[in-house]
TrEMBL record:
Catalytic activity as recorded in UniProt: Release of N-terminal proline from a peptide
Name by which UniProt lists this protein: Proline iminopeptidase
Family: Belongs to the peptidase S33 family.
Primary location recorded for the protein, binned into one broad class: cytoplasm
Cytoplasm is among the record's keywords: yes
Localization (cell): Cytoplasm
GO biological process, one term: proteolysis
GO molecular function annotations of the record: aminopeptidase activity
Domain AB hydrolase-1, residue spans: 54-346
Pfam assignment, any one: Abhydrolase_1
Enzyme Commission number(s) from the entry: 3.4.11.5
Length: 363
């Protein structure tokens, strides 16, 4: 009888242990959506990843873009080891539409992020909060750290900027150089004439006050580079092709929790928000390069070596001016053969660097 009981207990344990393990696994995985009330709006957040692990708030670019599609890359590299909060900033993505331009300011976005941080801290009392921001998200992270670093454990600034005029002037100089070289080497008179027109417009932009800059920004960052044979955002053509193909994949949209219709609506919201920011002189003339000296928390500064969207020296400038971060707690990584979209252009190196950084400082 005792032998039978022992066999029964063993069989029961062998049966129940996998179920218990699977139950524990299910408890740690999270994928939920919520809205956080902020002043005159609600912000969408999708929480995805391991609920037992450190929390990272993802700050998207733009201004006006959305976080949903960054899940595509983070799911393979970060979401097993972290809980990622994909935030759609005011007016962007699945957050409420915002047509009030007085609410579309850098100061308001910092206030909004502070509400999000407090809300998530209240929800996850045992977790410290980390930030990762890409492009404009990197800038927003720096702005937030200047005012509220006491609430943040560590911050990864990816392709962000602290000096807004520098990349504009640097890109103008780059395009002037390319246009002059093409004029000198081209035998096509029509092409030469077009390059001269580009030079004339570049001079006009260079001498402007950068006030109403949305249309000029599109010329400078998109139209002119295409005509001059380079790309301010991409250094790796294969990576760009992957991005284009992903854009045709319905499963890609489904994983981001978007229909094609919702994506189209989000892009319209993106343009609305971005136009307001780019037609605001204080945004175009942003310069917090000296202000970031107050930051003392761990910071990772990442940039592609060919990132003309923010200026190739931007990361070095930021790192140099993080004067109060202890030497052992600030890191600089310039990634070769890459520009602005590091998660695609240098996927393995980018995520290895990010994981190594957060592995040291997140708890």
């Amino acid at each position: 009888m005792r032998i039978k009981e022992q066999k029964f207990h063993l069989s029961f344990l062998l049966f129940i242990t996998p179920l218990f393990f699977l139950a524990c696994q299910k408890e740690t995985k999270m994928d939920t959506e919520l809205f956080i009330p902020v002043e005159k709006s609600r912000l969408y957040v999708r929480l995805v990843g391991n609920a037992d692990k450190p929390l990272i708030i993802n700050l998207h670019g733009g201004p006006g873009a959305f976080s949903g599609f960054e899940h595509e890359f983070n799911r393979k590299h970060l979401e097993d080891d972290y809980l990622i909060a994909y935030l759609d900033q005011r007016g962007g993505g699945k957050s409420d539409v915002c047509t009030d331009s007085t609410m579309l300011t850098m100061q308001q976005f910092v206030k909004d992020l502070d509400v999000v941080v407090d809300s998530l801290q209240s929800k996850f009392k045992d977790k410290s909060i980390n930030l990762i921001g890409s492009s404009w998200g990197g800038t927003l992270g720096l702005l937030y750290m200047i005012e509220h670093q006491d609430k943040i454990n560590s911050f990864a600034c990816v392709s962000g900027k602290a000096d807004g005029v520098y990349p504009i002037k640097a890109l103008i100089q780059r395009e002037q150089q390319l246009a002059r070289e093409l004029i000198e080497n081209s035998k096509d008179s029509a092409a030469k004439n077009q390059y001269r027109k580009i030079l004339t417009k570049l001079k006009e932009i260079d001498e402007s006050d950068l006030g109403q800059f949305f249309d000029d920004m599109n010329l400078l960052k998109h139209k002119f580079p295409e005509e001059l044979g380079f790309n301010a955002y991409w250094a790796n053509p294969k990576a760009k092709e992957i991005a284009v193909e992903l854009g045709k994949d319905s499963a890609y949209y489904a994983r981001a929790r978007y229909t094609k219709t919702e994506f189209g609506e989000a892009m319209e919201k993106y343009e609305l928000v971005n136009r307001v920011f780019r037609n605001t002189p204080s945004y175009n003339h942003l310069n917090i390069i000296d202000e970031i000296a107050v930051i003392t928390k761990p910071v990772l500064v990442l940039q592609g070596e060919s990132d003309y969207a923010i200026g190739v020296e931007q990361a070095n400038m930021i790192y140099k001016h993080l004067k109060s971060v202890p030497e052992g707690k600030k890191e600089l990584k310039i990634i070769p053969n890459a520009a602005h979209n590091l998660n695609l252009e240098a996927e393995e190196l980018y995520f290895d660097t990010v994981k190594s950084f957060f592995g040291k400082y997140s708890d």
